[in-house]
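Here is an idea for our session: we take a single protein and study its fold together. To get us started, please write out a protein record for me. Once you have written the record down, we can walk along the chain together.
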Amino acid sequence: MHAVYAPLEYHWFLAFALFLFLYRHRGSVDLFLDPMDLYERMSDPHHSSQAALALPPSLLLHDHHRGSVGPFLAPMRVYEPTPDPHSFQAADLSLLLLLHHRGPLDLYEPMPFQASDLSLPPPPPRPDKCDEGLVSPLPHTLFSSSSVFTSGYAPGYAKINQRGGAGGWSPLDTDLYQWLQVDLGSRKQVSAVATQGRYSSSDWTTRYRLLHSDTGRNWKPYYQDGNIWAFSGNSNSESAVRHELRRPLVARFLRLIPLDWSEEGRIGLRVEFYGCYYWSDVINFDGQGVISYRFKVKKMKIVKDVISLKFKTSESGGVILHGEGQQGDYITLELHKARLLLSINLGSNQHGSILGHTSVMTGSLLDDAHWHSVVMERYRRNVNFTLDTHTQHFRTNGEFDHLDLDYELSFGGMPYSVKPLWGDTGGRKNFQGCMESIVYNGENITDLTRRKKIESSVRRNLSFSCVESQSFPVFFNATSFLQLPGRVNHNALSVAFQFRTWNPDGLLLFSNLDHGTLEVDLEGGKVTVHLNMTHAAKTDHIRISSGSGGLNDGQWHAVRLVAKDNLAMLMIDGDESTAVHAATPFSVITGGTYHMGGYFLPSLSPPSQHSFQGCMQAILLDDQPADMHSLEKGMLGAFENVSLDMCAIIDRCLFNHCEHGGRCKQTWDSFSCSCDGTGYTGATCHTSIYSSSCESYKHMGRSSDSYWIDPDGSGPLGPVNVFCNMTEDKVWTTVMHSLPAQTKVTSGGSRERRTVIQVNYSTSMEQMVAITTSAEHCEQFISYGCRMSRLLNTPDGSPFTWWVGRGGEKHFYWGGSGPGVQKCACGIDRNCTEPKYDCNCDADLNTWREDSGLLLYEDHLPVIQVTVGDTNRPGSEAELTVGPLRCQGDANYWNSASFTTPSSYLHFDTFQGETSADISFYFKTSAPYGVFLENLGNTDFIRLELKSPTVVSFSFDVGNGPVELSVISATPLNDDQWHRVTAERNVKEAVLQLDLTNRVTRPAPPHGHTRLELFSQLYVGAAGGQRGFLGCIRALRLNGVTLDLEERSKVTPGVKPGCQGHCTSYGMYCRNGGKCVEKYNGYACDCTETAYDGAFCTREIGGFFEAGTLVKYDFLSEATAAANSDSRMPAVPPLLSPQEVNLTKEEVAFSFSASSTPAVLMYVSSKTPDYLAVVLTENGSLQVTYDLGGLKEPFSIAVDQRNHGNGQTHSFNMTRVNRSITIQLDHYPPVVYSLPDSSDSQFNLINTLFLGRVAETGPVDPVLIERFNTPGFIGCLSRVQFNGVAPLKSALREPVATPRASFQGKLVESNCGASPLTIPPLSAATDPWHHTDAEFPYEERVVPDGVNRNSAVIGGVIAVVIFTILCTLVFLIRYMFRHKGTYHTNENKARGGGDTQGESADTAIIGTDNPDTLNESKKEWFI
């Protein structure tokens, strides 16, 4: 601060300069009526940079802009203020001008005063850093303690680094009831605490708690990490241990409670608190007075608000501030059930202002009579709402940005003239308690009120000192009790008290009566009274209960019990409707002693419960208030393990650690999370129960179906229901929407008023973005059908229609085109209806046309809106189709890196996982050990490593000491196969899981640090001299975010992107003989040589046979033999080797369902009379016949005599090895048969396999053909396999021109009712997201007569024509070669010496052929 004096000769010059200054800054001008107020204002540490200016009495101004006056005031003299008020004297001093910030300008009449009026001494200057020693300057009289060992150990000697007396404080008794208290003289801000032991002794304190208070009563413990904090103390008597308070506190009285001390001595303590001066204006509200701050204009349209204040109260309800406007806008801050409720309404266009209402609730247990700080910052609709240190960010409802208030803003209550607010049922109370430092948009309301600057304030019943609560709470734990005296031998019993707790059960009061017992319990959240009265060997049990339950909600509840002759009445919270009268007559005689909160003495009639955890206050026993101060001094009663004058209740659900919508439940000691219906699991509902993508479901063996996926795992996004299509090589994720296909576009769409069509998805846009960004490829089909309705108005006009993507941008390209090109697919392919247009619809024809295609630019997908602008003309029609969003693959799932050296590593940003952290990844290695990842802090760290070939370790430290979890595998982990590791740490527990079976859990300590504070980079692979990891890591996720290992490894030596060898881990999922094929980002199952299809070779390939349909498969066809005999054709290798043509072993498998008999299921012929037949006889029995030679009659096996022609599906499996034949039908046990010894065991020269019928004139069994071949098999065959050959699949899937597989008749592809092999998904009972209304189309491919009967005829004619033309060409070519055989050689010689500059690349390559083979080569090339 500076005091500025201007001599008289500068008055007019100064007035002119001041006018220019005020005009420049538009500052407000105000008057200090009281010079004492002005001096205090200048001394206020919050206005430490103010300047005081002496002016002539002709003008009184107050400028609210902090800044310099400018060069006009250069002649003035500046004086520093001193404690001597006369240092401001000047001959003509009449006004002080205070400059500190901008505001509107007001002028006032002069009001001179003398400098001698400034008689108040200034407060101590505020230091730049709040770190001054507060204890050392204090006199001994401001120290007190529970007891003193001797006079030399008095508390006044407990100053750090001092040796007075015995060198510190020590109590008389060394137990948990001792304390050391310091009175700082006034409220101070405390930022740190330091302790020492007693000088040169064996006495020190190793652990202690810190309590603070404004009055020396109603103590509050220091909290940290959601618990009553215990500070670590000293390990010797000399070194000082200092702790910075994470949250500085403001208090006058500080008390240290020793918890542990030196094992070699006793409690010894020296202490210092560090902080600085604290000052603020305080206003006490008694529930009647209200401050009304009137605005300078009648109506205020406010776009930005900053409101801050501090309050303390012992009431659970009351309005703290309120303002409203005539248009329905309002803002209210109030206490509701000891929680802080902010209600704000900026207005709304729709349905009045009700839709603009926004309510946010925060805090808990705010009626504790301690100070709480509130800050509300609003800019337009964005609000930051801070209570103490916890901030909530939210956005108000409605459409408006301004808060329109009329006249005033009231503090401490609501004016009587206000209208009822939205949801207000009346009965709102005014605030009762204290407030300080009330600031509204820069105006210090408390200061203005104290200086009577708010003329319209309702100032009655307001005082400027805080009236403290007179309550005396008692804090109980599980081992506490309080024994208090009452009346003895009195015939009436009356007790009353208040309690608060989180536990549903506990003992509130117990008393041994003269003839019985009295017990007051909390049972299931209800208060229950048990009176046991004994009269003449008879015991009467009287039980009364009151209240509806739920009294364990942490609020104060009042209990009053009255019992006398034949009457017992129990009342809860003063509600007479809760009063209950006992029906059984009885009489009571008081015993004179009451136990509160616990009873542990031996008794003939002990209480049903023995302890209570919570707080009590306002205890009245037999109509007399309990004297708690005398109890504290030991003058009456007794207590054990209680904390007097303190209620240390903690709301453990206040800052809810239950994630993803989990519901927090708490008891006195802990909390738990209910995750039902959230889709998450774990102690804090952190871990998703669903896989992250369809790709991961595929590698769990799942088939195509509807699944829930969680794209960001444990991140903030919830699960999404999608359809996973796994029938193709890659997995497709399909997200559906609500827009029907071929939606008619309503008429009326024009350039001036377009029709807007919304595409609504079942997922949020954030979830859609997560799906598309993690996919390898995304696409979405879009189609516009039109008749006289133009689309993009190409090529030069502005588009009539556009679509909007996920970013809200308009896109003017259509399906089949790309960004930046205003075209449709036909415009790209240049095949539009009218060549001059780039879209079919832009031709504006009176016939239906269509523009359709795929949108492939995934940063624009999905389509969320289509705007149509040309359907208003007569005859205009349009139809819109938007397909589902389809995304392929999961780049995150296969994102991997290979670490090739022990010192190689990747580094990423610091891992942010303070209270909840999860890590998951896959690894494979052949090394016996290595560090997977590590992140360090000052002392905190987190690390995952392979400690040995069978042990994975998860270690961390959050400040409570290192913790290590290890899982031991039964098999070595360095087997070069993929293994999955998941690790999680939260405030409740730590979990480490390896693969699906090995899991270990470690609960977190009940008290201690909970925040993981890291600062270094995250190292993956090796760090800090640890043993590096050699191998592959993939799909590394931290708190739901996948780290891009591949991208980082591209620029990191010793690390390579990607990893090979997936089949070693996932090859087992390729079923039914499918072969695992390695791919860069995964694997695929090759089903070529199986009778199955699908991602895992689990879908049976089958066909429905009509009468006369047959399938023929040639093992060594005539065409193949002819091709091999023609030297002019390339060699066609036979399917079977000579060893496979002459068989001693067959493996046959198929499923069938037949609707008629007899029938041939399978017939295998040969170039000899040998054959194999599987048939259904006339009665439907299954028969297998072998004829391998050596027998007069074929060898037949009647497999099953039941009728198999009833349409049911049957499974047939047969294996023959030499003479042993093993057959299994359906799920019956296999049966072994043997060929006779005289039979040959070799199946010679197998030729053709038939299914359904036999069509061959060669060596076949005529008797069998005659009996079973007509009318043919009618039914379904599937998964047909013969020695590694899948004839039915080959006939259905391979090209028609393939000579080996063919069929005749009509064949419909079908799976014959079989289900693919899969791992079942979650059952509906355990799947909270289960839906049964999803429908998906069933597809069936029909192949009639190969392709189509008509198509076959046309194709045959075309084939004949082409064959004729080819024969003619061959004849002409041969004729040319015969007459010009030497042409090529001579031409080559001519070229050898010629210029080859003009030759093409192909010609140059041909010209370098070997001269010895030139003629033949040239001939083939010419052909």
Summary: The radius of gyration is 46 Å. The longest helix spans residues 1349-1379. The longest strand covers residues 241-261.
